[in-house]
Specification:
With 251 residues, this protein is mainly α. The protein contains 8 helices and 6 strands; from the N terminus they run H-E-E-H-H-E-H-E-H-E-H-E-H-H. The chain has one domain: TIM Barrel (Alpha-Beta Barrel), CATH 3.20.20.70. The structure holds 2-acetamido-2-deoxy-beta-D-glucopyranose (7 copies). InterPro entries: Aldolase_TIM.
């Protein structure tokens, strides 16, 4: 456990995010489609960039990594998520090496982004940005899995902010999930007091969203449902906010 806290301790000031602000991050890249409606920016170094560099326990050169960070940190000041899934702690024998790699990548990233910008790891079970993707049409399965991730993280340190990654497509066959299921997930996310918001992902990767998926993603009902949800959440048209934290991210 302590290894991940060590890594996370290098991340910037985060405590202030808790409770007051509830951020919904738009980390989608569907063609001609962005969520808007006060969702907030996020920077992301995808697995297809990080994995090949680190697979097998390798570390890119400082220069190479810093150039990658600068290339992907398109919204300076907003959180940066590192998605490096090949160096998670799956084996005691590689844990020390992988920790060293995670620490180096995080430290080098911090050296080229604005001071105070949050850096988090995607998908590590003890991270800011755990996964809350959908594998079945069962909302209770999804909710139980979310609650279990939250319990793991808060047991380690209940002051760390948690922004789960969501995705309006099924993880197994990439079809868009039924809009009622998506709306229920959104409601659960904003009523769970342990969460500081969440990230909406999708469309980054041709393997999970091909040309026809890309071209039609913006016409699928998840988009309108998400925008309606956000207008209520942030009181966009009626001034009655359910949560604060709309597109005004600041540290
Ligand atoms: C852990 O890594 C060692 C050395 O590479 C390997 O022999 C062992 O099978 C691995 N264990 C698991 C559970 O993957
Ligand atoms: C995709 O998977 C989900 C969950 O298993 C299932 O409910 C749905 O029918 C599948 N859709 C297609 C198009 O295969
Ligand atoms: C999801 O889990 C939370 C926390 O345990 C619970 O309060 C809520 O009722 C659950 N919602 C659904 C729809 O299962
Ligand atoms: C929890 O995280 C905060 C913020 O990084 C840190 O200041 C604090 O020492 C941590 N607490 C424990 C018990 O590790
Ligand atoms: C694109 O993806 C959809 C949904 O996953 C699939 O039904 C379709 O066959 C794919 N089209 C091509 C050209 O691969
Ligand atoms: C995206 O928008 C551009 C400019 O309006 C247009 O040329 C292109 O065909 C659109 N792509 C899709 C997949 O709708
Ligand atoms: C968009 O979503 C809202 C709320 O769910 C619904 O009332 C409205 O009819 C939807 N509009 C369209 C065009 O689907």
């Amino acid at each position: 456990m302590s290894f991940i806290l060590k890594v996370l301790s290098a991340a910037a000031v985060v405590g202030a995010a808790r409770a007051s602000n509830f951020h919904v991050f738009d980390n989608t890249a569907y063609t001609n489609t962005s969520i808007g409606y006060q969702s907030t920016n996020i920077n992301w170094i995808p697995a297809y960039v990080c994995n090949p560099l680190t697979k097998g326990g390798f570390l890119p050169s400082v220069t190479e990594w810093k150039n990658i960070v600068l290339e992907w940190n398109v919204y300076p000041g907003y959180p940066l998520v590192l998605d490096c899934e090949d160096i998670y702690f799956t084996n005691e024998s590689t844990a020390d090496l992988y920790l060293e790699i995670l620490s180096s990548l995080q430290t080098w990233a911090a050296e080229v982004i604005p001071p105070g910008q949050i850096i988090g790891w995607y998908g590590l079970s003890h991270a800011f940005f755990p996964s809350a993707y959908t594998f079945s049409s069962s909302i209770s399965t999804w909710n139980n899995s979310l609650n279990s991730v939250i319990n793991t993280i808060t047991a380690i340190n209940d002051t760390l902010p948690i922004w789960p990654y969501t995705w309006p497509q099924y993880h197994n066959n990439y079809s868009f999930i039924p809009v009622e299921l998506w709306e229920t997930e959104l409601e659960i996310l904003s009523s769970n007091s342990h969460l500081d918001g969440f990230v909406i992902w999708g469309g980054k990767n041709y393997a999970v969203c091909n040309d026809s998926c890309q071209a039609t993603a913006g016409q699928q009902p998840w988009l309108n449902a998400t925008r309606s949800y956000l207008s209520n959440l942030y009181g966009i048209y009626n001034g009655k906010l359910q949560k604060t934290g709309a597109q005004i991210f600041s540290l």
